[in-house]
Amino acid sequence: MIAEPKHQEYYRALVDRDRAYDGIFYVGVTTTGVFCRPTCPARKPALAHCEFFPDAQSALLASYRPCKRCRPLSHPDQVSPVVQQLVDAIEAHPDQRWTNQDFAALSVHSATARRQFRQRFGMTFVAYARARRLGLAMQEIRAGHAVVDAGLAVGFESGSGFRDAFARILGVPPARAQSAQVLYAQWIDTPLGPMVAVGGTDRLHLLEFADRRGLEREILTLRQETGAAIVPGASPPLVSIQEELRAYFDGMACAFGTRVALAGTPFQLRVWQALRQIPPGRPCSYQELAARIGQPTATRAVGRANGANRLALVIPCHRVIAADGSLGGYGGGTARKQWLLDHEQRAFGGDAPSSAGP
Predict the structure, then answer these.
(1) Does residue 250 sit within a domain?
(2) From CA 332, how far away is CA 233, in angstroms rounded?
(3) What positions carry a catalytic annotation?
(4) Which domain holds residue 169?
(5) d(Cα 198, Cα 205) in Å, to the nearest integer?
(6) DSSP label at 211?
(7) pTM for the whole thing?
(8) Cβ-contact 128, 121 below 8 angstroms
(9) In sequence order, what are the residues at sequence separation of 6 or more whose Cβ sits closer than 8 angstroms to the Cβ of residue 46?
(10) Residues 153 and 103 in one domain
(11) How far apart are CA 318 and CA 325, in angstroms?
């Protein structure tokens, strides 16, 4: 079990249903014999009836059974079977315009699809499907097909309706689409909760925990910098980073070879490159990092560059700690930062290679 000094902190996270602690600990309830994740919607037990564990296996070995409401043996916020079924249906027929009859054929109620998609992606199923169709339309136009033909090919019944939807979601008229950029976004389940990945056809632009403070601002800045629309979809960098994240969390590999797009000042680029040279399991201080880039007095600027990083884990800003050994700040939450440092120490012991270059 987890030692008592952490009990008050973890109990507060349990009562608050703090998503930043998902995957950090599990709680066994002595009165029911059930163990849960911190965000379980069930009524909260008294602290005296709680036992805290670092992982689900420890709770199982202590004879607790998994909660049927929060499903602690799955990833936090793992995509529901209904959402996965509908996403697969979109990918099978991306040009389809969905009706209530289509949902009925899949034995899914339209209200259920709307609610679960909004909870998972922050948009309704219809908005998700429309954004996916428009991303495909962009590919058609770039391939040289006429605007009207592209609209009809992805299920729009009129040219004007296609133009309106295209401009509203992608931000550019279809006639200018050949010079516009589209980035694709995916949610990736991890033991510490879902991550949002955004990538183009050959590079990864963003990777963050979905509940990171300021994520919306980061995505807005990315759109402004690139002039790109961000729509649901897949691309080679997203496939690559998903495989590498799985290996990282499984303790199999710690290097990330996915090509990345770095947008920053020359100083930020130097800091980020230095971050990628920090071996896992061997955190350094902000002062040490400043010295490594040849500017030992730039500690505060190094901290700001850390905070501007949009590629969590790939550029491992979690490996930088305060001079006194305390964790310091982390956009994904200090509990997550501690978990990542402990995981790297256990799994890689400081002997694994650091992240690859861009």
Answers:
(1) no
(2) 24
(3) 317
(4) 77-179
(5) 6
(6) T
(7) 0.73
(8) yes
(9) none
(10) yes
(11) 13
Which backbone phi and psi does 51 adopt, to 5 degrees? Answer: -125, 135
Residue 281 sits in a domain whose CATH number is 1.10.10.10
Q: Quick check: 337 pLDDT over 80?
A: yes
pLDDT (0 to 100) of residue 358: 58
Ramachandran area for residue 77 (φ above 0: left; ψ -120 to 50: alpha; else beta): left
Q: What is the CATH number of the domain that holds 166?
A: 1.10.10.60
In 3D space, the residue among 259, 358, 356, 271 whose CA is nearest the CA of residue 308 turns out to be: 271
97 and 175, same domain (yes or no): yes
For 205, the 3-state DSSP assignment is strand
Q: What kind and span of H or E run contains 52?
A: strand 50-53
Token pair belonging to 71: 């499903």
CATH of the domain at 31: 3.40.10.10
What would the pLDDT profile of 63-91 be if each residue is shown by its tens digit? 899 998 888 888 777 777 888 888 888 77
What is the DSSP annotation of 135-200?
Answer: HHHHHHHHTT--HHHHHHHTT-SSHHHHHHHHHHHHSS-GGGGGG-EEEEEEEE--TT--EEEEE-
Distance CA 330, CA 36 (A): 25
Residue ranges in the chain assigned as alpha helix (H): 7-16, 56-61, 81-92, 100-105, 110-121, 125-142, 147-153, 159-170, 215-226, 236-249, 266-275, 286-292, 299-307, 334-348
Each residue's pLDDT tens digit, 97-118: 777 888 888 888 888 888 888 7
